[in-house]
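Lecture notes, structural biology module. Today: joint structure prediction for complexes of four components.
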Amino acid sequence: MATIQDVAKAAGVSAMTVSNVLNDRPNVRPATRQKVLDAIARLDYRVNVAARNLRKGRTGTIGLAVPEVNRPYYGRLASAIIAAAGRHGLRVSIEQTDARRENELAALSQSRTRVYDGVILAAAGLSTSEAQQLKAEVPVVVLGERIFGGPVDHVAMPNVEASRAATRHLVDQGCRHIAFLCGAISDNPEDVDVSSLRRTGYRQALLDAGLPADRRLEYEITEFTMAAGAEWARTTAASRAGVDGVFCVTDTVAMGVLRGFADGGLRVPQDVKVIGFDNVDESAFLVPSLSTVAPDHDVMAERAVDFLVRRIEEPSGGEPEEFVAPYDLVARESTTGGAQRGER
Amino acid sequence: MATIQDVAKAAGVSAMTVSNVLNDRPNVRPATRQKVLDAIARLDYRVNVAARNLRKGRTGTIGLAVPEVNRPYYGRLASAIIAAAGRHGLRVSIEQTDARRENELAALSQSRTRVYDGVILAAAGLSTSEAQQLKAEVPVVVLGERIFGGPVDHVAMPNVEASRAATRHLVDQGCRHIAFLCGAISDNPEDVDVSSLRRTGYRQALLDAGLPADRRLEYEITEFTMAAGAEWARTTAASRAGVDGVFCVTDTVAMGVLRGFADGGLRVPQDVKVIGFDNVDESAFLVPSLSTVAPDHDVMAERAVDFLVRRIEEPSGGEPEEFVAPYDLVARESTTGGAQRGER
DNA sequence: ATGAAAGCGCTAACAT
DNA sequence: ATGTTAGCGCTTTCAT
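The predicted structure, tokenised, for the full assembly:
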């Protein structure tokens, strides 16, 4: 394969001039540029990215650490991030962490091998205290949870506020015994995560509505999966717990819950109403279609990449920033009943 | 950041010895190895991957070109491929092609810039003739369609056979007016793609069953999306076309169809039975749960990566190979009715 | 506007 | 078992 030297020779110029042409730098006479371009075409030359990286100390690739791409929410996010990164000429390499803290840490330290120019971490296993110690040997952006005062840029969901809105929506639809279904919550109040933040919003909404905060209505399941949601719903339906509304920590869990209630003979929304969080593509097409909180994934992805690019270009550039994404509440059949179409 | 030279100096050995330790090569005395490891730890040294790549002519990264990660089927595949590649110490960078041939070609030519050691292409837009011209400037494995006699290794689905089985299943359940719902099919018989292959299986099954092959029951929709499936189902329900079974080209389309029939007042499976293809995670949890063809994604991913790794290590190693993945037929509520649980 | 020299950090090949 | 030499292909710096 041709090198820059070969091109230089073929064009009768120096390698430097070829480099200047390749990188669109000024100070190249049009005639010279044309000679070079011809030689490049003739030899079918392509830059050797490894050599360029070595020289520049950049790799042109960012890492994206997610629990698993094969989950609607993270798939959606990954898709948006790949697109946003592409607009900056960056490739995205995905590391699956399985939501385990050691894998998340490994993904970050991968970056220290300089495989990545930066890392976007959709943290799910890291505790706040650990996250706060993220020594940025490489630029890092944390995405998805609100980690207050961390040392890195952060793109957050409006977890508390949106959860409050979701729960209030259930109240407005007439629910009085509203369950909250989430993952395991740490006893350490410092460890904020999706579950604890959304629980806070849920509790606030009950308070707002003057409903009793019955801790027995807060259920912790082990995994954020459809299977876990279905299992819970079957159990709940069987026990006739008197629940008339459920706020699920994610749409994926909510999908399982819909299935489990169907198995248990409870009708949604007539017997019990269900709302999720994420507005995954599938939600609009379920039967019944799923009401949910819709954060703006594209905006989140765009911001995360922007933050990261800025840090890559200027590693010591100012204080860590935080961006909280906007959201919509999407009311569908699972909370409103009736005949509306599944699409929003 | 420390270099290999720094480590060598600190350990009182040569850079080569450090390199030998790093790469687990033999001929290093345990005592020496320990000295080196100590120095590495002390200096917090990490290999510079760009330098190693330049030297080795490898990047340690493979490209995965998929239409979009945010589709259950491709997400599932990507997840499995990332895992399989990880076992070979390879990172995976994802290119989204949006199923357009120019983007698929671009992803392949990306590889010619030597960003990737090889590329796995989940082709959806490329025509057979184009695929056959894939000049392998870099190892390429095509995944998902049966491209006969192409110049590259190929991991295929048992499209025809599995579709035949799926359609036969509908026949066995008593369907007599079975529709086939697929994407646009080229008039060129050489352009085999998922739609045309699965249609072939569908037609064979009708033939097997002695049912008339009514071309008006073969519907082409523009996109493999839930929205397109829903749209079709609403129209069909409204027109009372007398369809009592539908074989959908993918689960995603089938999910839309379930929604559309619900909108149109048709009950599944009582009025019409529906079967899909892919066995996406969601399928088991829909209401009704979706019968489908379940190809073994993990095996497909593993094979694709194995093929690619072999080519990377031995670019001229023998004739192109083809592997056809095994599959299962998973009968759920959408074709069988009744009270079984959603999980398989 | 163009070129020459030097070196990024690593490892293959060849000593010792 | 360990060290020396050379060079992968590019770009930064400094000349011209």
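Point to remember: The mean pLDDT of chain A is 88.
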